[in-house]
Amino acid sequence: MIRLYTDDLSIGYDDRLIVKDLSIEIPDRKITTIIGSNGCGKSTLLKAMTRIIPHRSGSVILDGGNIAKENTKTLAKKIATLPQTPESSSGLTVGELVSYGRFPYQKGFGRLTKRDYEVIDWALEVTGTQDYKYRPVDALSGGQRQRVWIAMALAQETEMIFLDEPTTYLDMAHQLEVLELLQKLNSEQGRTIIMVLHDLNQAARFADYMIALKDGAIVKAGNCEEVICSDVLKEVFSIDAEIGRDPRTNKPMCITYNLVKEPQK
Question: Any coiled-coil ranges, and where (predicted)?
């Protein structure tokens, strides 16, 4: 089932066109990872699909409607976004930050209801951050802070969560902790997860569907076996990759690689 897709989407900044006439489909209730080299348009695409930035032409369609015409609060009940480097106001406690996820449901003076508090506590529990509820966000480690931001996204009660490089700046253990949490949200709650990842092996390990971008265009989209292969990685990253199998997941993985050398002239 496809609830979210783009149709001939073009995105740019000033005079520079980053993405041109891009049409993609995001599988519902699956984990989709987007890979590509720096500057290829991954983050730009995510921002346009969540209406953080406007697009120049084409459309982003969600549940049959163009998101450009959707009411902001209505859209926020369908899509939650975790940017690459989220920032919060200094001095906020974890509970206060997570409560911001309830904004789409607030009316009048914006007071939290009993239902809001129940959802906030649930989001903290699911992400394992309930013990931090009254602690300042600034006092947390990188991995703890990232889980709190995911809790805020969960508090929106959306069926789709977009994440731009959610493992950036985290050590290996915290990277795995965050990705396993997202996988759990997908498998147990049916959340559709769309995320940009730099690590190819992590992208393959946790994805049901992958999109490889180069210069704002799709090189390959499909399952992990179709995308994590030497031909695709050579075109996307200019590397000569040796592909094997992850012994624990049986997913394809990049074992080693060399740069593709340009022929001598």
Answer: none
Is 123 within 8 Å of 151 (Cβ atoms)?
yes
Report the distance separating Cα 249 and Cα 181, nearest Å.
17
56, burial (CB in 10 Å: exposed 0-12, middle 13-18, buried 19+): middle
Which of 131, 57, 142, 46 is CA-nearest to residue 94? 131
Q: In the chain, what's the furthest Cα-to-Cα distance?
A: 71
Tokens of 50: 């969540």
- Is residue 34 within 8 A of residue 204, CB to CB? The reply is no
Do 153 and 185 share a domain, yes or no? Answer: no
Q: Which of 157, 185, 200 is the last residue of a domain?
A: 157
pLDDT at res. 35: 98
Q: Is the pTM of this model over 0.85?
A: yes
